[in-house]
């Protein structure tokens, strides 16, 4: 019993240490980040995005630094973020001011080197992106990996959002396989019943 | 192993590899044997039940992918979860009748193979409604529980009824825990090894439970046997074997016994609670303790995986206590286990430290699952004629309990999940008090001694009318009644001689892990 008590104490101590350790890292709050970046998203030919399809279409994301701001950053990350209406009744996409817990922006677009003159990237939408309404957000990352500035295409997560049309995941071969196996299952069952009743009748006749 | 009989009373004297009683039910369990008919039936029944649990709870571990593909909201997911357990309420009841009429082998094989298209159809759903309908129909397959218990009750004698039922149902329930590990693994295989996009990979993963349905259904049909002496349909009527029974009579005797309804509620608050927790526990750990999905899923699977020992242990404890105290002991142990489960549910809700919560959850799962095992140490004794319907009704109660607890405590947003757990624990404690009302005239109840004028034969044969007794239809019940004298317990007249006299007593092959007291 003494050894199991020791084990319990060690477990509690480990959990406590880990808990404390996570608090030591500084939390970055989204509300404290300066909105120093200007981000736009459009179709590659320059037209505004209405709807795009994953796996087929691309979007062109351009970002620049607001002339009055000074941003000390090394990298720039662009992300695809959920609009408010796609977060409704979906707690796994909830917005949290603490960027470590925030789930608004779950899909990465690109990570580029930071430059005061700005940059752009063309992103072909990955097939794993779900269908929803999105906007694009950029974070400037400093050498320690913490966010120091941000900017986004939509001012309030409602206006200027675009729709992404997902793949269904279905294909003709899946449909056919389902049909074949279902028919096999039911016919094997009834075939067995018929076979067994014929067999029994023959046995009784003998 | 042939044992030559000095004087054969019947035309054919079948020889079994396990010691058997007068009904040819096995008196011991050899867990590593696949011999016809007893052990093979045990293994086939738990495997078929495991497969159905695998497919019914195959969606929850993949929900993070499915909810993105089908654009589900939290309400959609919750409603589909309730649908998955409510589908089997009716099917469990029907399965009870089907087993009484055509036997468990046909019943379970039919259900498993007819259900396979529903499992495959999950690969084709495109929206929330389709998802809900699919989960609802897949949930029907949980009725194999009834055929599983019925089959095992046919094959094993009263003294080890609890253990055998506990093993079959417990290892079947394991499917609910195993699926939380298996399905994500299959998904990763489809995603990375076969290079499919995520939204296709989860659909392909459902081919595994679907194919398992077909394979296991065929195994049950080809290898299974309803009764120790043969199949239901081939029973020779002149030996007084099982006969076609009137459905109405069977239903009447099940429904008019108040014990059936008490166990309906009791099972709702042991197995129903287990089903509810299966559906909500991963989310609970994910939200309350900020764990990632894989960790929360692994902890959630631990709840279901405890079934490998806890449910058989509950049945075994019930059998152990019955040897000394008979049926009254079985009732007391059930009350103890279920009340402990209720207390630990309250404790789980109160724990705000992760380690303490995991420990509480594990003890809670042990008690609740052992209580399920103990319930089925008693249920086969409620009625012999309507065994299938009684099992079906009790099993229904399990699902109704799950729907009720999920709807009452885990759907409203006015209180958190932990408060819901506390309320559920209180409700378990209250409903468990109903055990006091269970009374078997020939054996007694928790606080009441047995009536001296009623014997086991009186109790079981009273289910048949005088006309039916004249036709000799009650003989199977009579044999069961004689064997059920074991439920009087050790303090009664204990002649160690077997009441039925000579019968084949070939020793089992290999190691025997559980043995009832030797004759």
TrEMBL record, chain A:
Pfam families: NAR2. The chain crosses the membrane at residues 176-195. Keywords: Cell membrane, Membrane, Nitrate assimilation, Signal, Transmembrane, Transmembrane helix. Residues 1-21 form the signal peptide. PROSITE patterns: PROKAR_LIPOPROTEIN. GO terms for biological process: nitrate assimilation; response to nitrate. GO terms for molecular function: nitrate transmembrane transporter activity. Involved in nitrate transport. This is High-affinity nitrate transporter. It comes from Physcomitrium patens.
Automatic annotation (TrEMBL), chain B:
The chain crosses the membrane at residues 44-65, 106-124, 130-152, 164-186, 206-224, 250-271, 291-310, 331-351, 357-382, 389-409, 421-440. Pfam families: MFS_1 (PF07690). It is a multi-pass membrane protein. It comes from the Eukaryota. It is found in: Membrane. Gene3D superfamilies: MFS general substrate transporter like domains. The keyword Transmembrane helix applies. GO terms for molecular function: nitrate transmembrane transporter activity. Keywords: Membrane, Nitrate assimilation, Transmembrane, Transmembrane helix. PROSITE patterns: MFS (PS50850). GO terms for cellular component: plasma membrane. InterPro entries: MFS, MFS_dom, MFS_trans_sf, NO3_transporter. GO terms for biological process: nitrate assimilation; nitrate transmembrane transport. Residues 41-443 form the Major facilitator superfamily (MFS) profile domain. Belongs to the major facilitator superfamily. Nitrate/nitrite porter (TC 2.A.1.8) family. This is Nitrate transporter. It comes from Physcomitrium patens (Spreading-leaved earth moss). The lineage of its organism: Eukaryota, Viridiplantae, Streptophyta, Embryophyta, Bryophyta.
């Amino acid at each position: 019993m003494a050894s199991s008590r020791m084990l319990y104490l060690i477990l509690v101590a480990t959990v406590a240490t880990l808990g404390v350790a996570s608090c030591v890292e500084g939390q970055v709050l989204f509300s404290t980040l300066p909105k120093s970046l200007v981000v736009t998203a459009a179709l590659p030919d320059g037209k505004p995005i209405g709807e795009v399809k994953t796996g087929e279409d691309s979007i062109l994301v351009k970002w620049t630094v607001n002339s009055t701001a000074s941003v000390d950053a090394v990298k720039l990350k662009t992300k695809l973020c959920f609009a408010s209406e796609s977060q409704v009744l979906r707690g796994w996409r909830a917005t949290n001011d603490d960027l470590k817990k925030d789930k608004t922006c779950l899909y990465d677009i690109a990570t580029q080197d930071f430059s005061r003159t700005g940059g752009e990237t063309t992103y072909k939408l990955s097939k794993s992106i779900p269908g929803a309404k999105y906007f694009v957000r950029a974070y400037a990352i400093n050498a320690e990996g913490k966010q120091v500035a941000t900017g986004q295409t939509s001012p309030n997560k409602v206006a200027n959002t675009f729709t992404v049309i997902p793949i269904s995941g279905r294909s003709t071969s899946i449909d056919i396989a389902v049909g074949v196996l279902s028919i096999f299952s039911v016919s094997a069952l009834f075939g067995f019943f018929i076979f067994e009743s014929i067999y029994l009748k023959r046995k009784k006749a003998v | 192993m042939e044992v030559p009989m000095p004087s054969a009373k019947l035309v054919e004297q079948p020889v079994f590899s396990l010691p058997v009683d007068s009904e040819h039910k096995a008196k011991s369990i050899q867990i590593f044997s696949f011999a016809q008919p007893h052990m093979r039936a045990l293994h086939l029944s738990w495997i078929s039940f495991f497969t159905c649990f695998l497919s019914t709870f195959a969606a929850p571990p993949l929900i993070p992918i499915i909810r993105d593909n089908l654009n589900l909201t939290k309400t959609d997911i919750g409603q589909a979860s309730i649908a998955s357990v409510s589908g089997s309420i009716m099917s469990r009841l029907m399965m009870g009748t089907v087993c009484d009429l055509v036997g468990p082998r046909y019943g379970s094989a039919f259900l498993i193979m007819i259900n396979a298209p529903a499992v495959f159809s999950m690969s084709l759903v495109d929206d929330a409604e389709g998802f809900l309908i699919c989960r609802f129909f897949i949930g029907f397959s949980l009725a194999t529980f009834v055929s599983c218990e019925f089959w095992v009750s046919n094959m094993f004698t009263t003294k080890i009824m609890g253990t055998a039922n506990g093993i079959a149902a417990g290892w079947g329930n394991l499917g609910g825990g195993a699926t939380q590990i298996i399905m994500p693994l299959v998904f990763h295989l489809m995603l990375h090894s076969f290079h499919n996009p995520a939204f296709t990979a989860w659909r392909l993963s459902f081919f595994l439970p679907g194919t398992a349905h077909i394979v296991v259904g065929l195994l049950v049909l080809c290898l299974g046997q309803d009764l120790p002496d043969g199949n239901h349909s081939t029973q020779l009527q002149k030996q007084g074997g099982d006969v076609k029974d009137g459905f109405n009579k069977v239903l009447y005797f099940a429904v008019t016994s108040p014990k059936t309804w008490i166990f309906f509620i009791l099972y709702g608050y042991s197995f129903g609670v287990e089903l509810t927790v299966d559906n909500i526990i991963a989310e609970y750990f994910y939200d309350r303790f900020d764990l990632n999905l894989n960790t929360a899923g692994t902890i959630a699977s631990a709840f279901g995986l405890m079934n490998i020992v806890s449910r058989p242990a509950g049945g075994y404890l019930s059998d152990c206590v019955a040897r000394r105290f008979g049926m009254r002991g079985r009732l007391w142990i059930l009350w103890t286990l279920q009340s402990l489960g209720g207390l630990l549910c309250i404790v789980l809700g109160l724990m705000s430290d992760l380690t303490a919560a995991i420990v509480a959850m594990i003890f809670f799962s042990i008690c609740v699952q052992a209580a399920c095992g103990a319930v089925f140490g008693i249920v086969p004794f409620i009625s012999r004629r309507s065994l299938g319907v009684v099992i079906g009704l009790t099993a229904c109660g399990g699902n109704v309990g799950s729907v009720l607890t999920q709807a009452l405590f885990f759907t409203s947003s006015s209180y958190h999940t932990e408060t819901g757990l506390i309320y559920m624990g209180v409700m378990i404690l209250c409903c468990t008090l109903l055990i006091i009302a269970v009374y078997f005239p020939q054996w007694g109840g928790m606080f009441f001694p047995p009536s001296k004028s009623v014997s086991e034969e009186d109790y079981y044969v009273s289910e048949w009318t005088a006309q039916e007794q004249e036709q000799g239809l009650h003989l199977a019940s009579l044999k069961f009644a004689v064997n059920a004298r074991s439920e009087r317990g050790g303090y009664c007249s204990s002649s160690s001689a077997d009441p039925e006299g000579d019968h084949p007593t070939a020793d089992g092959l290999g190691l025997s892990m559980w043995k009832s007291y030797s004759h």
